[in-house]
Each structure stands twice: as C-alpha cells, then as structure tokens.
Amino acid sequence: MNLALRDIRHRLGRFLLTCFGLSLLLGIVLSMIGIYRGLVEDALTLARAPGVQVWVVEEGTMGPFAEASRIPGDTREMVARIDGVAAAGSLTFQSVEGTRAGRPLRVYVVGFEPGRPGTPSHVVEGRQITRSHYEAIADRRTGLAVGEKLRLGRHDFTVVGLTEGQVASGGDPAVFVTLRDSQALQFELQPPSARRQAARGAAETSTDTINAVIARVAADVPPERVVDTLRRWKHLSAMSQAGQETLLLRSVVDKARKQIGLFTAILIVVSAVIIALIVYTMTMDKLREIATLKLIGAADRTIIGLIVQQAVAMGAIGFGLGALLIALARDVFPRRVILQPEDGLALAAVVLLVCLLSSGLGVRVALKVDPATALGG
Amino acid sequence: MAEALVRLEGLSKHFGEGDARVDALREVSLEVHPGRVVGLLGPSGSGKSTLLNVVGCITEPSAGRMFLDGDMVYDGRWLRGDLRRLRLDKIGFIFQFHNLLPFLTSRENVAVVLHLAGVETSEADRRAGELLEYLEVAHRGHAMPAKLSGGEAQRVAIARALANRPRIILADEPTAALDSQRAGIVMDLLQKVAREQQAAILVVTHDEKVFDRFDQIFHLRDGRLAE
Prior knowledge:
Largest interface: A-B, 25 and 34 residues
Radius of gyration of chain B: 17 Å
Order of helices and strands of chain A: HHEEHEEEEEEEHHEEHEHHHHH
Strand content of chain B: 25-35%
Structural class of chain A: alpha+beta
Radius of gyration of chain A: 30 Å
Number of helices of chain A: 11
Number of domains of chain A: 2
Distance between the termini of chain B: 19 Å
Structural class of chain B: alpha/beta
Shape of chain B: globular
Helix content of chain A: 40-55%
CATH class of chain B: Alpha Beta
Strand order of the largest sheet of chain B: 6-7-8-3-9-10
CATH architecture of chain B: 3-Layer(aba) Sandwich
Largest sheet of chain B: 6 strands, mixed
Order of helices and strands of chain B: EEEHEEHEHHHEHEEE
Oligomer: heterodimer
CATH superfamily of chain B: P-loop containing nucleotide triphosphate hydrolases
Number of strands of chain A: 12
C-alpha cells in the first residue's frame, strides 16, 4: 500500500495545481537554458554556415562579427591564390531596417558571391539567386514567402528562396543578396547626399569594399598554415574557423551567457526554496496523520517514504509538465529556444536533488512529531 | 484468573525538576485482565492521558515497573528498543475523534496496520474486510472517512485497533463525540471484542453515560489511583 500515492489521490486537485505552478517555474528555468543554447547557436550559425576554415579581415580588427572590418574587394583574388586555398569568397554583413508591405522588418543582410564560399547551402524552399541584382534568399524567421518583395534601401528585392535557422547573434533573421547589391546597400549614398558630395567637390569613393574573405582550405592542408601565411601580410588579419567561433562566444555572447547563467542559477535556488516550502506545508498539513501513523506503529522509513515520494512525484510531474509546456511554446519565443536532451536530463537531476534536499525539512518536522499528539482532542 | 495483560507496579511519572516538577503519576499499581473492559476516570489534569501514554509506550515513566502481555517492558528504563514495533504487535488504539487517515478508505484504514506489520496486501485486504464485517460496517468499506457518520467512523477505528489481533486496546474518550445511543453501541462492541478476543481494554473517559458499562473502574486523582 503506497501511502504517498493514496494521499496524492485524496488531495489530487491541490496536488496537481501545485505541480502546475511548479511546472511553470521549471519551464522558465528550462526556457532560460534553451534561450542560452539558442543564443550560442545563433551567434555561431552565420559563422559556421559557409563551412570554411579561414577568415580574413581588416588588419588589427576582430571582424567581421565582433568588430567592424573593411577590406578592399580584390582581397578575395589574393587569398584565392595562396597555396593550399581551394576556394575563397567575399562577404558583407549589415543590419538593415527593411520594409515589407509597408511595415518595417529588421533583417541582417549578408552579401555573397553566388557560387563561391558563402553561398547559402541549405535553401529549403525556392531556388538560389541566379540574377545579378535584386533577388534575395530570406530566412523563414523573416516571415517572408517565396515571390514576396522586400524593400532594402532604395530597391525592392524579390525573395526567390528560403533558408531555415539563419540568424545573426542579435537574433535578426538573415537575408542573403548578391555582393554587388549588398555593397550598394552599404556604401552607396542616397541621391541627395551624392549630389551634395559632388557639389562639395569630394572625390567619388569606391564601393568595392567587403567585410571579410572566407577561404576553404584543401583537404590535405592544415588551416593554420594558411592562417600563418596570411598573418605575414601586414595589411590583413586572419583567423581560423575555431578562432572565429571562440571570439564570437567570448566577446559577442559572453555577457549575455553570464547574465542568463546567473538568472538560471537564481531560478533554480528560487525553485528549491519553493519546493522546500511546499513540502514543508504539505507535511504540516499532515501532522496529525503522521502522529497517528507513528502511534499505530509505522516505522520512520514509512513516514520518510510518504514525504520524500510526494516531493519527488511533485518534482517529476512539475518538470515533465514544464518541459512539455516549453516544447510546445518554444516557437512563440522571439528568439530561438534550443532544448537539448542533455540539458533536460541535467535539470531533471538537479530537480530530483532539490526535491530530496527540500524534503529534508519536511522529514525533520515529521520525525519530531510526538505520537501522543494523535491522542486527545 | 488469567495472567494480567497490563500490570503496573509503583509506576511514577514526573515532568520537570525542582520547583517546576509536576508529578503526573504517583506510584500507580494496577492490573487489567483479559476479557475485561476497564474504565479510567478522573478530573482533567489527574493523569489519565499520561497513564494512557505510558501504557501505550509513548511516554517513558520515571520509576516503577510495567508488564505488557506478560513481558516486562519497563524497569527503571525501557527494556525494548523497538517500542513502535511493540505497539504495532501488542497494542491497539482507539481515539476520541477516530483519527482515521483521511486519504484512505475505511477498508484501507484497517488494512494499513496489517501492511505496516508486513502482511501481504491481498491478505491484509481480506482481513480488513473480515473485521469490517465483524463490526457490521463492511458496506462502508470503500467510503472515505469524511463520508462516514460518527458511529461508522468509530466502528472502523475499532476495526483498525483490532487489525493485528492485539491483546491490549487503549481507548481515549471513544464515546465523547457520540450521542447516547451510538456511545452505547460502541461500548457494546468493546465488550464483545474483550469477551471474544480475550483482550484487555483500558478506556479513558469523562463520559458519565457509559460509566455503568465497565467491568472495573479506576479513579485517578492528582496522579494517585483510587479504585
């Protein structure tokens, strides 16, 4: 006869309501972990997408994600000629406030050279860009559909393809356009400004500027060898893919990571306190029953089992329900929430531990109950 | 006469020391024999509850000797370490407000005692059913305590007290919450149990309407016994 289950059955409504409250709390903890994972994934997505091994940026900068980087457009040809480089591509990156059907849409525009490294590799709907101008591949998170128009700067772009999960570290969905279009978007002046500059007699500046060159290294060549070669060129900086990822995590998402980590730790402590209070209250509600059980001869392990099993059941149901809620609601979050099985298991283990420790308070109270309490009115 | 199931020899119990010392029991000696229902009467503060707690092995006496079912269990100190097991095997308790576990059905309330004693679930359930039948409350076996009348709840409580076939039953004001008719029925049941199961039943009560139902009455006053 399981007394814990019988007691839960007796107070089912109250128990389930408590579990539901706990599930919301644990769901928030799980979502915070998921948001952190999403943050890291978002930060790395665009850097990983091209599948390259070497990044070349402006000398003295940590670009193109952690810092601004501007290098001449012909850098790609020089990099491509280095021994060991199989292919190279030019890229530009910029945040743009576009408009879609008259409504603002913030996107992260990536300029690339079609057919070269940097070309979106996973177009899940539609096709690749085939025209030189005014075609775009947008991420699904923009909400755009194939054939829809997106205004960027002075031009309307037609969405010809869609990607999935391509976002910037800030969470803005990516839109891929040709390098020429992105350069125009980034560096060309609006006509009134251009006229003003011309009137001032300022020399026309070239727009053939890019933010980075990426290089795919031949299979038998260590990427570090290419990086070392590039570092000897004093006007450029180079880093490996691993270096770029470390930089992104260290500089771009580090503070957010610490913030979320601290918040998650606080939430776990709050959960522990709440679970302890719930278990304590549940025990206090049963003091007379516990005294009766002791009086009729129940061993301490029976009393401890009653409390601990209920605490663990509450934690398990609360966690399960919380995980289910977040799994169902994760797409509603404006930023990506990634739920990984190992994170879920780790949190489940923490919840189990918290339940066991928290029930200690209730067990302590229960073991102190005098069986004589059951006698007398 | 058969050997007494409860025998107290010069049993004393005091709380506190020095000026704060309160003598709750003063050299109490009594015997309760099998098949008898014995009343323990006295005004509030006379030591009735303390005596019940001492015989129930809940409160440790300060001096004297105590024998339960022929075994000496106290002689200046407890002679057994497993007092809860002793209670489970030898003593049944009946309370003023029945104290049924609210999360168990009537039948489960009886079976739980057997379960605690290590009896297999199906056997415990069968014996619980028999006891409820014996106390004529089997038809309420699946009812929760909150749905039982006062009389029904007290019958279930008596069934629970009998579950492990204890030789000693301690009842604390078992009729106080019942009207005269139901109080009479409960006393009839206690007498039936005492006769048929050769149990010794010690009843603490203030309830004058049941004074004439005891085989023997002990009066307690200021911790001293006066039969």
